[in-house]
Design brief:
4-stranded antiparallel beta sheet; alpha+beta; 169 residues; single chain; binds adenosine-5'-diphosphate
Length: 169
Amino acid sequence: GSGRAARARAVPQRIVASSEVERSYIMIKPDGVQRGLVGEIISRFEKKGFLLKGLKLFQCPKDLAQEHYKDLKDKPFFPKLIDYITSGPVVCMAWEGAGVVASARKLIGATNPLQAEPGTIRGDLAVQTGRNVVHGSDSPDNGKREIELWFKEGELCQWESVQAPWLIE
Ligand code: ADP
């Protein structure tokens, strides 16, 4: 009856401390959007079996680009990098799953697309470091930091894929 329904609503189905869940911030850069590679790039992470927790098309302001790439601020290419990232809309994504950070880096490939292995996103779809179509967090800590930087409270979805039991035993 309604009593059981009320109890079910009051008790969250599963509580997982967010620190236990590994997430990577993946971003399709403006060249990837302009070149019509959005579907292709999202597909690679979907097909692999990670869980999409957040997704938006977004025009990045300069200060956010600078904060995101703050570790590179002394590099000679930093001003060009900021111009590139803010030159058009990007697609911001939060992907979740055990091992997602390292695995996404492998799916993305080396920073220089000419050195990226065929089969990787950059290896298949790009030719230059300054136009390498996609970003992926380099550590679980940075995954958390970058997702907090690019997404607002409430922009991530809490859901479970029906595929889960077919992906994880
Ligand atoms: P990654 O994106 O593979 O983690 P880095 O963190 O070293 O690589 O650099 C961040 C981004 O800065 C690169 O993806 C690329 O867009 C840009 N970048 C790095 N090195 C250069 C370079 N030598 N010239 C131009 N852009 C660069």
